[in-house]
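[SOLVED] Need 3D model of a two-part complex

Original post:
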Amino acid sequence: MKNAKSYPYEKRKALLGFTFIIPWLIGCVFFFLLPFIRTLIYSFYDIKIVDDGLAMTFCGLQNYIRTFVSDELFLPTFTSAFYNTVFQVPFILLFSLFIAVVLNQEFRTRTFFRSVFFLPVIISSGVIISLIAGDSYASSLLSGQRSSMMFQAVSIQDLLLKSGVDTSFVNAVIYVVNNIFQLSWKSGVQILVFIAGLKTIPPHLYEVAKTEGANVWETFWLITFRLLSPIILVNVIYTIIDSFTDYMNPMIVYIAKTASNLEIQYSASMAWMYFLCVFAVIAAVFLLMTKKSFSYSD
Amino acid sequence: MQTYEALKKRVTEKITLPEVDKNKLMRIVRGLWSGYRLITLFSISMILLFPIIYIVSMSLRPAGQVSDPMVIWIPRSFTLKNIVDTIGVMNYLPAVLNTLRISLLSSVLTIFSCSIAGYGFARFKFRLRQPLFMLVLLMLIVPPQNILISAFLYYKNFDFFGLGSLVGLFTGKALTINLIGNEFSMYLPALFGNGIRAGLYILIFNKFFSNLPRELEDAAYIDGCGVYKTYFKVMLPNSLSALLTVFLFSMVWYWNDYFHTSVFMQNATTLSIQLTRLKFLLNEALNPLGKGVFVDVSEITVRLQAGCLLTILPLIVFYIFVQRNFTEGIERTGIVG
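Solution:
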């Protein structure tokens, strides 16, 4: 007790604060970090499954060499995983921010629409989605709807190209149009996180803005957007990760497939290559965005 | 002369625009906006509702009407036969109870452990905070498939967080138990903040708590509360909206989870495991071995969709029930007002 008293207040508080994360830390080390490191070790070994566990012989970088040199499936799968993400993230964010701001307004049917927009999260089960996707009746209905749509992707493409819009921009638009189902389907979590974030903005700020004569547009950018920036950071990172670690992501499918073929060492080395690249992307985004996001403690 | 005078008068006269009623204009703009809002929301809702409508429509129609060109959404006649059949085939009631128990317990443990960790990261400047927080992000980035095999082996020889191995140093034999096939392989990680998508929840709580004004805690500290009392008496009641959000997410993800349950709790009767088996089970039930009965694909399809409906129905009921508390919770729990 005497010892604790002689401790400076801030230091003692920090020490007590550390106890808050101890349960998580224990779990993280044993359920996550150690298995993760063990996977790294596996990737340098040649592993055979024997009766009482694994027979491992060291083989250096053999598995990594196989990834890049002799596996012709790896690189195309790898690049398509990144390509998907680059297209998806901006659209999902803009879409979910728009929907969240709209759903945060007061209007009569709001409760209904809110529950609809959160539905994708509830049916996010990979099992159900794969059952529907594998159902030939469902896909014929979906494609039937698509071909009878008023704005077909082809005609939009023609229109934009003829009016002299840049090709890469047109491609992005076409991607969004063609994948509107998957993209809006993936925005449920982000919408909800945004709505929860909008609720944390103190209403008196809006009153001040109104009395100072700011219009809706200015209010949005100066108050909503600025105060929402920590939440935007969460959502950006979540969307990137969700896209990279999605069960349907070609790379994840490939990694899981090799693992279930019991090529543990090869699956491990691919997983590590993939992880390092994803990590680089996310670290870059995180560092860029934390500097710009807003916090009360600033 | 007169015309000149008239012209001069007209030119020098002040041009006045007709008086615009500003309120009226605002009302028109508002009306247009709400019309636009309604149309946009409605059309996107239709895209989102497609699978639900499909599941409901398929599972309520007789198998004969699956490829009927006259029927797209609304069948000509309704039947509950598919659903009744599927309840029997997929062993529905035990599956629901199992899934409910696992997801409820794991979610409660998850919000408890993750909110504590999120708060710790948000408010205390202890040493190693930055590197440990990077560890949270790492948990998010690494897909569970990456660590599948080594995690499986750890669960199989669970040594009580190294304590078992420590005992092993003295007794010569490490004290381990097998968690595979046991529900504790879901609860233990949840209790220690490593359940499904725990990294995400810690991040949400962290952001949430760092956005709460510091004055709240300072007031509690001045009133003589300790760190823990401040958390449980002041911060936790103020974070109900975040707790509910995370609970809902966690509940849903545990409910829908197939990956973890199928790997760590093999042969368990949970809804998603039963659903993946359903096609096989249906084939077996409709076409008993050796009978050689021809089973039409549509017979399977309607029952599969009935299985989907049965799986998401409890979640949707739960959601309709929570939705009200949920939005109210979010709105009531502002720190201001």
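Edit: Chain A has one domain: 67-290.
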